[in-house]
Amino acid sequence: MKNQLLVLAIIIIVGPLSFSQITGTAHDFSGQGWGTTEICQPCHTPHNADASIADAPLWNHETTTTVFTLYTSSTIDATVGQPDASSKLCLSCHDGTVALENFGGTTTGTNFISTGDLGTTLTDDHPISFTYNTALATADGGLFDPATGTTALGGTIANDLLIGDKLQCSSCHDVHNEYNNTSLLKIDNDASALCLTCHDK
Ligand code: HEC
Ligand code: HEC
Ligand code: HEC
Ligand code: HEC
């Protein structure tokens, strides 16, 4: 009886965690017939990685060379730059210019992300690759201070959602599905909870 209870307890504890994985998500390419049965390999390699992009962890995928059209508006206070760091890695598949199976030195792939994805024009997407700090929050007036504002993940906006002090794709998404939310979100956006983490509206 004791043992059965222990097993039950382990199932209850381990069960939900085992779903929060990359396996079976949109980023699991192990069953694609691209010459790999591995999950990490389309994006990472333990050796001979491309170290040319800052903040690229052992990167194995061909990277985009697109010059993007950036988000602009009359009310934005941030200075939005060309996608950099990890956002550039995302866009190396999500801008549709680099074949998905172009990794490990392959440059002749033929499978591209659908044209309905982000593309090379980011004017219709939430701005990324800009500094979000106390000064920006003060200038804007409608943002929480990232140094003191907290998130549902338990820390400050700066610690939980910013990379360096920048807002990137990975501010809102977790590429490895760590949090097991729809659209690989870090914070579920029911009742716009993700948006309201940063925007004081
Ligand atoms: C679809 C591409 C993709 C796949 C597949 C992928 N990763 Fe990543 N990984 C990234 C990107 C992009 C980053 C950097 C941005 C970030 O951390 O969000 C990253 C960051 C990391 C990091 C450093 C930061 C962190 O989160 O700890 C580690 C470690 C890592 N990945 C391990 C793995 C392992 C292990 C696998 C396979 C089980 C894997 N990744 C599969 C894209 C991928
Ligand atoms: C190796 C190519 C590749 C890389 C690198 C990559 N993705 Fe993806 N991603 C895909 C593909 C293919 C899909 C599935 C098709 C689609 O949704 O457009 C996808 C789907 C997604 C989805 C939708 C998931 C869903 O369940 O609806 C999100 C969100 C996403 N990616 C975000 C990111 C972010 C953020 C990064 C970088 C941190 C990233 N991706 C890096 C190829 C990639
Ligand atoms: C400010 C938060 C935020 C940022 C930054 C962000 N996303 Fe998203 N993304 C979302 C939300 C929220 C959704 C879900 C949209 C929905 O369900 O209507 C989403 C959905 C997606 C999807 C699923 C398809 C779609 O259009 O609904 C993909 C792919 C994606 N994002 C990729 C990216 C990539 C790549 C970047 C960086 C270039 C990025 N996102 C930056 C919040 C963000
Ligand atoms: C990680 C923090 C963060 C999250 C999460 C976030 N935003 Fe933002 N968002 C910002 C910052 C910072 C700016 C830049 C504001 C500025 O400079 O005026 C911005 C800009 C915007 C803008 C453009 C404002 C303008 O003046 O043109 C809109 C609209 C917006 N966000 C809506 C959303 C929505 C909707 C969501 C949820 C899907 C969301 N944001 C999630 C931080 C965030």
Present the secondary structure layout.
Elements: H1 2-17, H2 85-94, E1 130-131, H3 134-140, H4 157-161, E2 166-167, H5 169-172, H6 195-198
Antiparallel strand pairs: 1-2
The structure holds heme C (4 copies).
Gist of the model:
By secondary structure, the protein is mostly helical. The chain is built from six helices and two strands; from the N terminus they run H-H-E-H-H-E-H-H.
Number of strands: 2
Order of strands in the sheet with most strands:
1-2
Distinct ligands, ions and cofactors found in the model: heme C
Poorly predicted ranges (pLDDT <50, ≥5 residues)?
6-18
Strand composition percent: under 5%
Describe, in plain words, how this protein is organized in 3D:
The chain is an all-alpha fold. It has a domain at 132-201. Helices cover 23% and strands 2% of the residues. The chain contains six helices and two strands, in the order H-H-E-H-H-E-H-H. The chain starts with a helix and ends with a helix. Mean pLDDT is 92; it is low at 6-18. It binds heme C (4 copies).
Question: Top keywords for this entry?
Answer:
single chain, 201 residues, mainly alpha, 6 helices, binds heme C
